[in-house]
Design goal:
homodimer, about 260 residues, alpha/beta, 7 strands, about 15% strand, binds adenosine-5'-triphosphate, binds magnesium ion
Chain lengths: ~260, ~260
């Protein structure tokens, strides 16, 4: 049964899409079969794989709103060996209201994807910068959550809102997510970054992943529709995401 | 009648809150009375002014969902002379569905704020990273829109989605917004940034504001609950936002 990891933070621009895109490639380099699910109407992950969201017929939005559409109808092969994707498009904007009246609306994604669980080692969900029902669907369908956080001022408030959401999920839906915090865009020259890292280490001991430092190669790579581990394999961020992939593929005992 | 400017981009982390917070202070330094409206459930703008969103009684969310709540009931004085704020809190998450069935749901904010128009020179709206009904409300209540854009790969797709939204607003609601693009976090050492700036200049000739370059003082200032123009008045970003404030206060003929 696959590891299911949702990448979530309602704070925008912290590196959610970058993390899913790069981690998927790094996991496939370790021989894992990966499914990436793009749940953001901006469809940045979908564009990173080289697809044009405006030209796609069926996407993740149809999975939510059309009973007869199955997961295997929306899966695309990507240019990365061993990585498949469920694309997003602008139709996702309307999903929030469309699923409002549906029964078991938090379980739609989980129910649709269950049929595929035996085909993949890892399923990664790229979430939009909000805590909408679509994001809750990804959390319910996952067992682990990776929260990319910039070591900057607004991040601390975002974490407290997020941990409230996780607590609610546990209380109301008896769904317990294993939490990982991934510091991103870390600039060790900035005193503030070190102070925030130390504060996080204290509050979330043992849940902090090795940080991803600031690296302009991560900005260039999506333009080439290539992950940084392929476009700039010796770059600092390629090595850091490679190490993250190795850590996440260890079994629970080994960690 | 005040200049009403909404700061919008569904792409996250591009500098929307930073722009509203800093521009408000720079405008007040020019003797303008400014009202800032925080429409993001993350409430980063509200925290930047030093308020704790979780301790507030009435916020922007109540303005949307409670008929009897008026704008003057939610306005707070900030620590910046001449700047008032309508704060946000987590209740904004629920507003999207709550206003779904309401009549004239796109005009709620405009109708509530009209009574205050004669008290301010400028009203600035900080929007969440999405194109929800709350963001549409801010667009309808504004005459101008400033779109902060990072000179990075995902920004180009965000602009095309945004211009589609502006076109829809004009066609369906006969509401014409004056568009300004504000390049943010610009790092002139990166070739990519210069290429993107050139491409934008060509497509949006005359609508591009002088860029705001990358400046770590902008990261530090919100922690002090002070805008960069007050905390680091000689920094590069303080001068750039000061110039932006002067440009926006020129009358239409002078520009
Ligand atoms: N470690 C890093 N160093 C430098 N730039 C980075 C790093 N990680 C991400 N970026 C850049 O930061 C920007 C934001 O990243 P990304 O789009 O992945 O964030 P996001 O959280 O998915 O944003 P959104 O909230 O809009 O979905 C991108 O342009 C990306 O290239
Ligand atoms: N010119 C700049 N140089 C360096 N850092 C900047 C600059 N402008 C903004 N920042 C930093 O980038 C981060 C994102 O900015 P900000 O929170 O204002 O973006 P936003 O668009 O409001 O994000 P969201 O989509 O989550 O609402 C902040 O930590 C801010 O300090
Ligand atoms: Mg993203
Ligand atoms: Mg913001």
């Amino acid at each position: 049964i696959p590891r299911r990891i949702c990448v979530v933070n309602q704070k925008g621009g912290v590196g959610k899409t970058t993390t899913v895109f790069t981690l998927a490639a790094a996991l496939s380099d370790l021989g894992r079969r990966v499914l990436c699910v793009d749940l953001d109407a901006q469809a940045n992950l979908t564009s990173s794989f080289g697809f044009d969201p405006d030209l796609l017929d069926l996407t993740a939005a149809d999975l939510f709103t059309r009973e007869e559409v199955e997961a295997s109808d929306v899966i695309l092969e990507t240019g990365i060996e061993g990585v498949h994707a469920i694309p997003a498009d602008i139709k996702l904007v309307a999903v929030e209201t469309r699923i409002h009246e549906m029964m078991m609306r938090e379980y739609i994604l989980q129910t649709k994807l269950e049929a595929l669980f035996d085909r993949y080692h890892v399923i990664l969900f790229d979430c939009p910068p909000n805590l909408s029902r679509v994001t809750i669907n990804a959390m319910v369908a996952s067992l682990e959550v990776v929260v990319p956080i910039e070591t900057q001022s607004y991040s601390i408030k975002a974490i407290s809102d997020l941990t409230n959401t996780f607590a609610l999920l546990k209380e109301k839906m008896h769904h317990d997510l294993k939490l990982w915090l991934l510091p991103t865009k870390v600039d060790r020259r900035m005193r503030l970054a070190i102070d925030i890292l130390d504060a996080l280490e204290e509050t979330f001991r043992g849940r902090i992943l090795d940080p991803i430092q600031v690296d302009s190669n991560l900005v260039r790579a999506p333009l080439l529709c290539e992950p940084v581990t392929h476009a700039y394999p010796t770059s600092r961020s390629a090595l850091e995401y490679g190490r993250l992939a190795r850590f996440l593929t260890l079994s629970d005992e080994e960690r």
